[in-house]
Automatic annotation (TrEMBL):
Keywords attached to this entry: Glycosidase, Hydrolase, Maltose metabolism
Domain of life: Eukaryota
InterPro entries (alphabetical): GH, GH13_cat_dom, Glyco_hydro_b, O16G_dom_2
Chain ranges of the Glycosyl hydrolase family 13 catalytic domain: 24-444
Molecular function via GO: alpha-amylase activity; glucan 1,4-alpha-maltotriohydrolase activity; oligo-1,6-glucosidase activity; sucrose alpha-glucosidase activity
Region annotated Disordered, chain positions: 434-454
Source organism: Aspergillus mulundensis
One Pfam entry name: Alpha-amylase
PANTHER family hit by this protein: ALPHA-AMYLASE FAMILY MEMBER, GLYCOSYL HYDROLASE FAMILY 13 CATALYTIC DOMAIN-CONTAINING PROTEIN
Family: Belongs to the glycosyl hydrolase 13 family.
Swiss-Prot/TrEMBL GO biological process terms: maltose catabolic process; sucrose catabolic process
Biased composition (Basic and acidic residues): 434-443
Protein name in the entry: Glycosyl hydrolase family 13 catalytic domain-containing protein
Length: 591
């Protein structure tokens, strides 16, 4: 098919960050350099060549600041120092330098919806109602029911179970914590809080950091009426979160305050934004001329296997067409409106993608990993790869008992279940199955560096803070670096291809092909008169696909094939009827 020239609206908004891809690091589980069983910054520095060779442009370091680690560093006690177990500020400076020397940038994690209750600001805030820091957090007096019993100011529930309010005996008021009790929410209405955040942003940019990933950034502006939610069902948190504590009236004003500083430094930004279904709201945050943030993490495709209303630990089901619908919606929307997508399958809060989106037989896991890499990275947007994804690490074993799980989200859910349904063994069994599928622990097992004991993450006789997934003898970085056919090398090929055909894969448009097919995901990307097809078999069977029926059978060149060199597969993609091997993905330049 010779295509009609496509003139992309994004053409005029070229930017280095659109062309970049990002590699995310969870410091506790990356690489332990001092045999204390916990990953650390020097460990990360020792792996920078491995990261560079993958072909990414940016490294995102998850929170590494001083923290009691109730929520693995998302509870910050001091934004200006590094957790002792991870290293020092000087180590981070070395990391920044090491990235820069290799042509990569470094992102810090900005967690400013809340702090740790061990932060000095909070300690002072809770010390007295007259403290100059009182108004840095959200304090409200109790309500009383008809029997005179003390109740929280409203019925909101925390993301980690229970009320979102904690009573503080000495001053007789409640403080808000949308996450753990130990994570009090900051009061962004207070200009002193905003100024303090701006100072933190400048501090790290002045140290050479190149930008930020911003934690739950759309929660910073909340409905100041703090109204009751329609119900208090924790399963229904997703129904009302957006109405009351997400995307509040001053969100864009606050984002522009940070955005102004980021612009001065030409820094990168990606915001985590749960509960955004409203495309206009997203666009206000990410459109190129708004100077707020570059892109956001959307949640629809990672909530795909949750039960209705976002109930994560209840079984949910999905179809390939649901996933395709998500991508189509956001791909087309951003392209037409001057916004930008962050592309991800995995992060530190999500299970492993091969298990979530495919779940193939053992022998086909590498093939499935390559297929997912192709499909994700050639969409329009900036691809994010989470540590271990590049080698196809899997979820924790089904046999693991609760003692192996470490994450507060999962453990609080389990505690709640045992409290409220102590005899319901069926509910407990289902929850256990769902933890193995969806717990954040799946992402947090140590990186499998080699087939050595402990997967080479730490010394052979050390007990790592979290057990290494026993698959490390089969799935590890050392083997994959040596094997040119490995998933690790395949990722680098995909990222290279994305840059070689920059106009098509970064700036081109997106069109979903064969919409209703439940076995194949196919889309085209086009720029001017060039057009490419990305085609993926989502099944573990050989599959016939009628390329002619979709008007994409005019092959100019096979650019990439998950099953090996493009030349070898060339003849399989001539004529109108094609055959795809199990989980095969192929990238074809069309005439
Ligand atoms: C989102 C982070 O990704 C998650 O890990 C954390 O628990 C919450 N925000 C609270 O900071």
């Amino acid at each position: 098919m010779s295509s009609t020239p496509v003139k992309p609206p994004n053409e005029i908004h070229r930017a280095w960050w659109k062309e970049s891809s990002v590699y995310q690091i969870w410091p506790a589980s990356y690489k332990d350099s001092n045999d204390d069983g916990i990953g650390d910054i020097p460990g990360i520095v020792s792996k920078l060549d491995y990261i560079r060779d993958l072909g990414v442009d940016i490294v995102w370091l998850c929170p590494s600041y001083k923290s009691p680690q109730v929520d693995m560093g998302y509870d910050i006690a001091d934004y200006y120092s590094i957790a002792e177990e991870y290293g020092t500020v000087a180590d981070v400076e070395k990391l920044i330098q090491g990235c820069h020397e290799r042509g990569m940038k470094l992102l810090m994690d900005l967690v400013v919806n809340h702090t740790s209750d061990q932060h000095d600001w909070f300690k002072k805030s809770r010390s007295s109602k007259d403290s100059e820091f009182r108004d840095w957090y959200v304090w409200r007096p109790p309500r009383y029911d008809e029997n005179g019993n003390r109740q929280p100011p409203n019925n909101w529930v925390s993301h980690f179970q229970g009320s979102a309010w904690e009573f503080d005996e000495p001053t007789g008021e409640y403080y808000l914590h949308l996450y753990a009790v130990e994570q009090p929410d900051l009061n962004w209405e207070n200009p002193a809080v905003r100024k303090a955040v701006h100072d933190i942003v400048r501090f790290w940019l002045d140290k050479g950091a190149d930008g930020f990933r911003m934690d739950v950034i759309n929660f910073i502006s909340k409905d100041q009426g703090f109204p009751d939610a329609p119900n208090q069902d924790p399963d229904a948190i997703w129904q009302w979160g957006d109405r009351y504590y997400a995307n509040g009236p001053r969100l864009h004003e606050y984002l522009q305050g940070i955005g102004k500083i980021l612009k001065e430094y030409d820094a990168f930004s990606v915001g985590e934004m749960p509960f955004v279904k409203d495309t206009d709201e997203v666009l206000k945050a990410v459109r190129y001329d708004r100077n707020e943030i570059n892109m956001i993490f959307n949640f629809e495709h990672v909530d795909i296997d949750h039960a209705p209303w976002g109930n994560k630990f209840k079984p949910g089901s999905w179809k390939l067409t649901d996933l395709k619908a998500f991508f189509e919606r956001w791909q087309v929307f951003m392209y037409n409106n001057g916004g930008w997508n962050a592309l991800y399958w995995e992060n530190h809060d999500q299970p492993r993608s091969i298990d979530r989106y495919v779940n193939p037989p053992q022998a086909l896991r590498p093939a499935a990993g390559k297929m997912l890499a192709t499909v994700l990275a050639l969409h329009a947007g900036s691809p994010f790869i989470y540590q271990g994804q590049e080698i196809g690490m899997g979820n924790v074993p089904i046999e693991w008992d609760m003692g192996e799980y470490k994450d507060i989200d999962c453990l609080n859910h389990w505690k709640g279940l045992l409290e409220h349904k102590p005899t319901d063994t069926e509910a407990q069994k289902i929850a256990r199955q769902e933890y193995q599928k969806k717990s954040r622990d799946n992402a947090r097992t140590p990186v499998q560096w080699s087939a050595e004991p402990n997967g080479g993450f730490t010394g052979p006789n050390v007990k790592p803070w979290m057990s290494v997934n026993p698959e490390y003898t089969r799935v590890n970085a050392a083997d994959q670096v040596k094997d040119p056919q490995s998933l690790y090398h395949y990722w680098s090929e995909v990222l290279k291809l994305r840059k070689t055909y920059l106009d098509i894969f970064v700036y081109g448009n997106y069109k979903l092909v064969d919409r209703d097919n439940q076995e194949v995901y196919a889309y085209t990307r086009a720029y001017d008169t060039s057009q490419a097809l990305v085609l993926a078999n989502w099944t573990d069977n050989d599959l016939a696909w009628d390329a002619a029926a979709h008007n994409v059978d005019q092959v100019k060149e096979v650019l990439l094939d998950t099953y090996g060199t493009a030349g070898a597969s060339r003849e399989r993609f001539s004529g109108g009827q094609w055959t795809l091997r199990p989980y095969e993905a192929v990238v074809i330049l069309l005439k």
